[in-house]
C-alpha cells in the first residue's frame, strides 16, 4: 500500500468516534472506490452538525446496524429526512456483550476463537447485507455495531475480501480502530446498555468493551473464507449469494486502475 492508502479516511464526528470511508484500499485490478462502504461505531449520539456533515459531505444513503436487541438498535429519526434506508441485521448475537463471563469461559481470552464463533453462523446474514448494498440506491452505506471493531470488522473484511481487496489492506484497516478505541470505550461506558461491561471484575477486559485489536483475530476470519471453495466470493455463494450480486458488488466498490 502507498502512504496515502495506509492513512484511514476518518470522518470526524462529535458523537461517533470510529467512522471512516474505506475508499483507497488496494485491490486486484484497482482500488476501493470512495463513497461506497463506510464503517463505524454507533450513531446514537450524533449532533446536529454531525448529521449535516453526513448529509452534505458524505451523502449517506444506507445504514447497516449489526447490534443485538439488548443494545436498543433503532432507525434514527433523521434517517427518513436524509433518505437513508436502515437495515437491522444482528449478525452475531453471540458477542459476549450480554454475558461477558460466559464468553470468557468459552474462549479463554483467545480472540481468534471469539471471531471464529461469531463467523460460524454469519454467512446468511452477510449475504443479506450484500443484497441490501447492491439493491437500490443505498450507497454510500455505513456498517456499524457498538464500537465498530468486532462485528463490523468481520462484516467489512468479508465484503472487502469478496471484492478482491488485498489481505494486508484489510488487516491494516481493521487495526486502524486501535487509534480510536479509547474514545469509543469511554463513550460506551456512559451508556446504560453497556454499564455491566465495566461494573467490576466480572467483566473480562477486552470482551465487549472492544479494548483488544488483535490482527490474529481478523486473520482467522480471512483464513476461513479464503479456504472456502472459490475463496471469499465462494463463501458468500455457498451461503446463498448469486453470481449477479457478487459481480454487482465488485463493480460498485472497485475502481479500476
From TrEMBL:
GO MF entries: phosphoprotein phosphatase activity
InterPro entries documented for this protein: Prot-tyrosine_phosphatase-like, Tyr/Ser_Pase_IphP-type, Tyr_Pase_AS, Tyr_Pase_dom
PROSITE patterns in the record: TYR_PHOSPHATASE_1, TYR_PHOSPHATASE_2
Pfam families named in the record: Y_phosphatase3
Domain Tyrosine specific protein phosphatases: 124-196
Alphabetized PANTHER family for the sequence: TYROSINE SPECIFIC PROTEIN PHOSPHATASES DOMAIN-CONTAINING PROTEIN, TYROSINE-PROTEIN PHOSPHATASE
Family per similarity comment: Belongs to the protein-tyrosine phosphatase family.
Protein known as: Protein tyrosine phosphatase
Species annotation: Parafrankia soli
